[in-house]
Automatic annotation (TrEMBL):
UniProt-listed Enzyme Commission number(s): 2.7.6.2
Domain Thiamin pyrophosphokinase thiamin-binding as annotated: residue spans: 136-201
Protein name in the entry: Thiamine diphosphokinase
PANTHER family reported for this sequence: THIAMINE PYROPHOSPHOKINASE (PTHR41299)
Enzyme class (EC, first level): transferase
A Gene Ontology biological process term: thiamine metabolic process
Pfam family, one: TPK_B1_binding
Key words of the record: ATP-binding, Kinase, Nucleotide-binding, Transferase
GO molecular function: ATP binding; kinase activity; thiamine binding; thiamine diphosphokinase activity
Species the sequence originates in: Candidatus Ruthenibacterium avium
Length: 209
């Protein structure tokens, strides 16, 4: 069976309401405490891995890889590498946002790594999604009741044009010094985002009711 989409459970709680993200997954990996998070969500991972410093080693998992506590990769990043080895071209990180800020930042950087590998990747939690957009034109389907925000992944993203939104941009530079891309809103059936040089974090956040 061809393996295309992989869902990786990290250590944060994952709501069962996020089931649409894993319903069509070909491969599920649990990183460390992500194994317990997956089981709580009703999902049995195909692979469990980690140094298990924050949870016990799974005894009934299909496959387990125990990692040393002292290593260069985070457990989640190691899981990403295993997904790439399996040939996955679409990767979703769940339970990867919130909690320890250093781990959240590591997971956000992992999205940049995946974009550079040519992989479609996102991190998601209830009411929030984040992905990385590289150079070129991208289309985001409108979601009523959701904000669309853009942030530079590095020092700046140049030549950014944004259409189909309440606050459009034309050939603008988005830098890390000014959050001009925050809390935009859809104004058409889809938003069109063009990046001439650099990368952008693209965030979708559900508006508070």
């Amino acid at each position: 069976m061809a393996v295309n989409k992989c869902v990786i459970f990290a250590g944060r709680p994952v709501s069962k309401e996020l089931c649409t993200y894993w319903a069509d997954a070909d491969y599920v990996i649990a990183a460390d405490a992500g194994y317990e998070r997956a089981l709580q969500a009703g999902v049995e991972p195909d692979l469990a891995l980690g140094d298990y410093d924050s949870s016990p080693v799974p005894k009934d998992a299909k496959e387990v890889i125990c990692l040393p506590a002292e290593k260069d990769d985070t457990d989640t990043f190691f899981a990403v590498k295993k997904a790439l080895e399996a040939g996955c071209r679409e990767i979703v990180l769940l339970g990867a946002l919130g909690g320890r800020l250093d781990h959240t930042m590591a997971n956000l950087q992992t999205l940049i790594f995946l974009q550079q590998q040519g992989v479609s990747a996102m991190a998601a939690e209830q009411g929030q999604e984040i992905t990385v957009l590289g150079e070129g034109t991208h289309y985001i389907s409108a979601r009523p009741g959701w904000y669309l925000s853009l942030f530079s992944c590095g020092e700046q993203a140049q030549g950014v044009t944004l259409r189909g939104v309440k606050y459009p941009l034309q050939n603008a530079d988005i830098t890390y010094l000014w959050p001009v891309g925050v809390s935009n809103e859809f104004a058409a059936e889809r938003a069109e985002i063009t990046v001439s040089k650099g990368k952008l974090y693209c965030m979708l956040c559900k508006m508070e009711e």
